[in-house]
Amino acid sequence: MSATTAMKKPRPATDEQKDLLDRLLGERVHYLTPESVELLKAKANTRDMSAVIKSLLRQPYKPKPVVPTGVSVEPGVYKKDGEIYEIKRSGSGVLRVKRIAVVAGKVRRYAALLRPSRFTPADRITEDDATGFGKEYGICCMCFRLLTDLQSIRDGIGPVCKKKHFGR
Length: 168
Fold this sequence. Notes:
By secondary structure, this protein is of the alpha+beta class. It has six helices and four strands. 36% of the residues lie in helices and 16% in strands. The model has no long low-confidence stretch (mean pLDDT 88).
């Protein structure tokens, strides 16, 4: 057998391949046991390691763990960055955020780009903000109904909402 036709001795896996393998094992769903990973790192050549890496790249990412925020918001009216938002439960029980705008004297609810987790209890609308909204638009900021009673128009909020949301 001549020197040109002799098979080349396989090179051991590189440190870069081993680092990439470790990263992929941490982020992808895989079938490898810790023992097989150690054996692979110790004995694999570059070609075998490349095949394993290609296989891992085709695998889906591991699901990210859900981290509870510890602070939950309740359905209601909130003010954030100068905008009024309403948080309500959908039919399936999921909290949804709508941005409130008054257009031509009518309340419009628009899909908001904010998630409920972006709100804190401190963002809940204050009585001053609610009455200011009511005085400006003639609409109750808590139930979004037209204020018709003279005292309610002066107060900027209806008596039922005032008692229900602010205890007065």
